[in-house]
Every structure is written in C-alpha cells, then in structure tokens.
Amino acid sequence: MILTFIGTAGSGKTTLTAKFGQYLEKEGHNVAYINLDTGVKSLPYTPHVDVREMITVEQLMKSGLGPNGAIVKSYDILTPHAKEYANEISKLEEEFDYVLIDTPGQMESFLFHDFGSNLMENLREPLVVYLFDPNILKNLYDYCFVRFFALMIDLRLSATTIPALNKIDIIKNELEYYKKYLDNLEYLSSRLRLDPSTQGYLAYKLCSFLPDVISSVRLLYLSAISGAGFEELETVAYEHYCTCGDLT
Amino acid sequence: MILTFIGTAGSGKTTLTAKFGQYLEKEGHNVAYINLDTGVKSLPYTPHVDVREMITVEQLMKSGLGPNGAIVKSYDILTPHAKEYANEISKLEEEFDYVLIDTPGQMESFLFHDFGSNLMENLREPLVVYLFDPNILKNLYDYCFVRFFALMIDLRLSATTIPALNKIDIIKNELEYYKKYLDNLEYLSSRLRLDPSTQGYLAYKLCSFLPDVISSVRLLYLSAISGAGFEELETVAYEHYCTCGDLT
C-alpha cells in the first residue's frame, strides 16, 4: 500500500511520515520510506529512496541560484527520472506492507510541476493524504477552501485524496468546533448562506456543490505527537487498497 | 489601481511585473512596484516597497535553516507587519496610477500563509491576476484545474481573480488550441464527458459547475516578451476599479 503525504511547507508531512511509520512498525508491518524533498536538511526516518542522492537545493544554490529558482531547478532535474522513481516505489510496494511517500517541502513543486504528475501517474491507484494545518482555518470560507483543495489535488494528480486536519494536538478542546464545519457540509453551507458578501456567496455556492462530487470521502484528524487518527488512517489505507476505494 | 500577480515559482510573475510596468509607464502612467518575495536575488524593477529590507531567505539559511523552513520563517516574521505593508501600498495607490504587487516566489507562501491573507484583507478591492504556464496544461483535466484554481485564490484571498495564461510566446501557433479549451467551458465539458474514468467524471462535474460561479470573469493571454495581452490587462484593471468589477 502506498500512502502519499501532501501539504504546504510546515504542514507536518515529514514528522507524520516518521511517526506514522513507527506506529505501523509497532503494529508488526514493514514500512518503506520515500523522501521526495530536495530541500530537507535532515530526516527523522531512514529513506529507502531519497531524491537528494541525485540533487539538492543546497547544491544548486551554491552554483548561484536563489532559493525559489533552485527548488524549481531541482525538480526540473528530477523530472526525466520520475518514471524510474515510480518503478522503484512500485517494487518496494511488493516487498513492504506500506510505502510512505514524503513529498516536496513546497507543495507546488509536486502539484504544479511535471515531476509530481509524472511520478503519480506511474503508480498504481496511489492514495494521497492532504495535510492542512488548523492555522489556515481562520474563517468559514477557509473550511470550504480546504475541502475543495483536496479535490484540486485529486483532479491534478488523478489520485484519491483524503483531506486531513493535522496537528490536532495544538487545538485541543476546540476540535469539536473544527469538526462541526469540516464534517458537516450541510451545516457549513447553511452558515455561509447567511453571509451577504460576494465572497460569502461564492463560498456558499462552492460548498453546496461539494456533496455532488465528494460524497464518499471522509476526513481525518491527525496528530504526530499524540498518534491521534493513526488507526483510522491505517483503516482508510486498507479500505482504499483492499475494497477498491470505498471510503465512506 | 492595485494589481497583484500570483503564480507558482517560475510562472513569470517578476518578469511580467517589470514588463507590464514599463508598458504602463510608456503609456504615460506612473507606476509603483512592490516586491513581496523574500527569496528573490535581483529584481528587474526598482521596488517602492521591498520585504527583503526586513528579512531574506538567505539570511535565515545562514542561521542554519533549510530552504523550505527559511521561506516559511521569513513570512512568519513578516506576518505581524502585514497591515503596515497594506497601509504603505494603499498610500502608494493614492500617489500612483498603478501599484503592481509581485508576490512570493512560492505561491503557497502567499495563498496558505497568514501573511498573504492578512495583507490582502487590508487592501481595498484588490485585483489578482493568477498566472499559469502553458507547461502545466498537459491533459483536459488540467484546463479544468487552472480555471478552478483561480476560484480557489478568490475564495482564499477574498479578491477578484483573473486567470491568465502566461508565456504565450512559447506556444506560438498552438494558442488557438489552448483558447478553445480555456475560453469555451461548454466545449471542454462536452469533451470531458466522453472520458469514462473516475477522473474524467470528476473533471466533467467540476467543469460543468464552473459557469454557475465564474460567468463574469474572462481569461487573459499574456507574454512579457511580446507584450501580448498588456492592453487587455490594462482594460481589465480599469474596468475592475472604475466600473465595479464587471469583467464580462
């Protein structure tokens, strides 16, 4: 089973990859780790595949590029090898119970760059977990935004994508508040309907449309610190690979 | 009038800011330039506001951070000053005909970080131009993706967002092919409908829904090299600020 963690820089992909891997190992599974981040300095797991063996952002910056240019260039260099990486990952999938893919630090290096789409299209039914941080949920529009963003990833990478609120340890008692809006789209829509602004109307329309396209994907609530949601993540992965994608 | 250029690293924001600014100046307008990229090494315009005066990615990397961490940290440092920057930009708007905002190299530093939303919510009716590269349009789903992505920016930043295919000089004779799918959502939908895959169905549903929410926003086709689309961009900005957002 291949699990791909996608999210913006700082959303906790690398820590979660390590901690969820440790959890799976304790459960008796064998786990392979893939690092696709050319910019990461050190990893809390030992990768079986590491793109930094081919190129790092640091090397490119030493040759004179700025950080943005170096990040883009590193994936330009990796792109012709995307299929080889996909083959390596597919081979590991045969040997290991789980293959955990830790994607580029900057989400756009994966989502908007050929490297990401070329790699993903060469994997068999990849499952994506889209990690977002409680900090980006400031107003009701943002709840609609993250639900839709998971769809955008699905559309771009042709991969079933499960949205996951990560770092729930930092919100503690407010989790139920977040869940109320994230799990219950009808409730979110009804609240957005009361917003008279142009933005409120857009969010309302988008949110009301969502059930037409995402009825079968549930949300996850995760914490790498407490291990919350790990069991459910394991179940979701199992169901995706073993019962053909019914994630209701 | 404030124009904000948003797009992934390498989508041509900085070059377009410079070239469109030169065009406006030749037309007799006075133009202010804002650089919000903490990672850029050199600029092809002289900025009136430059976030690098407060912090740069390079400084943070010297203190030991990796490129991703340094990019995030630089915007963490800028966030408490987002409102001051918005005030500075608003003052420039009174003095200058046009204020062109060149946003962070990595789009997610603006779209997913408080810095971006805090800054934008303190500007009066900001207009956003979402730049995407012909290279990301590989299959029909991608056409649907970019149209929807502009909506995501609109939703997240509460700002009218116009999608713009940039670098049209590199596609030359194929421009009509791109336009056929980007301009005519009905045609795109009818093609997607023939796709029997799960992905095709998702793209078809999303694409068919689009006219419900974006009927009034047209697309731009730009080139910083040839100056194509500059006149139309100027018109769109004028219409946004002077006729209250009717961009049909």
UniProtKB/TrEMBL annotation, chains A, B:
InterPro entries: Gpn, P-loop_NTPase
Keywords in alphabetical order: GTP-binding, Hydrolase, Nucleotide-binding
Keyword Nucleotide-binding in annotation: yes
SUPFAM superfamilies the UniProt entry points to: P-loop containing nucleoside triphosphate hydrolases (SSF52540)
Domain of life per record: Archaea
GO molecular function, one term: GTP binding
NCBIfam families: PRK13768.1-1 (NF010339)
Family label: Belongs to the GPN-loop GTPase family.
Protein name (database record): GTPase
Organism: Palaeococcus pacificus DY20341
